[in-house]
Design brief:
By secondary structure, the chain is mainly alpha-helical. It is built from eight helices and no strands. The termini are far apart. It is a multi-pass membrane protein.
């Protein structure tokens, strides 16, 4: 599972980095192409960057599908649990497992419908307008992302049955920053303001 987790994270990071780099390059290209510098302008105009917007859109589609699966695993999806939290522990567990099961079934159905759609499209000559890439490759994000999301729902459900814990995203956590140490340092006076002479107040 750790290998799959890391592959998922790296894949999303690569997609995000590629989309950012392509967008930045396209914007710089468009800006410099408009500046009247004879040699540079002529060279840049010869470079065709019309495909950049289309590729960026496809990268974001793939990122969204796999990011949704990551969201299930890490508990960052928004959920309304006001009524569920008012139930007894036994009923609460039943409702949580029902919702996770419904998520797994729904995304599994979407994945299957997407796979049938991609299979049918793979037998056509349909390509994208700018990249001229086979469209079945673009739409492959639907079954792959949906099946991964369905698997993540089942994984969370199995973990909940075994431990009683659900994944929760800590919005106050910042990677590389230990908030507790900063608070302790502030309480000990290490971060107290100083006077102009350099003495502590």
């Amino acid at each position: 599972m750790k290998l799959l987790d890391h592959l998922e994270e790296y894949f999303i990071a690569v997609l995000m980095a590629a989309a950012t780099l392509i967008t930045f390059t396209a914007v710089v290209h468009r800006y410099l192409s408009g500046i009247d510098i004879p040699v540079i302008q002529d060279a840049l105009i010869k470079i065709n960057m019309s495909w950049a917007q289309e590729l960026t859109i496809y990268l974001f589609v793939w990122m969204a599908k796999f990011g949704a699966a990551y969201g299930v695993r890490s508990g960052i999806h928004v959920g309304v649990d006001v009524l569920v939290n008012r139930l007894s522990e036994k009923n609460k567990k039943v409702f949580i497992l029902m919702s996770l099961g419904a998520g797994a079934i729904f995304t599994g159905v979407v994945g299957t419908l997407g796979a049938n759609f991609v299979w049918g499209m793979a037998h056509t000559d349909q390509t994208s307008s700018d990249l001229e890439m086979p469209m079945w490759i673009v739409y492959l994000a639907i079954p792959l992302g949906s099946y991964l999301m369905s698997f993540r729902f089942m994984q969370v459900a199995w973990h909940y049955v075994r431990t009683g814990d659900l994944p929760k995203h800590d919005h106050s956590h910042v990677e590389g920053l230990d908030v507790e140490e900063a608070v302790e340092a502030a309480q000990e006076g290490a971060l107290q303001p100083k006077t102009a002479a350099g003495d502590k107040l």
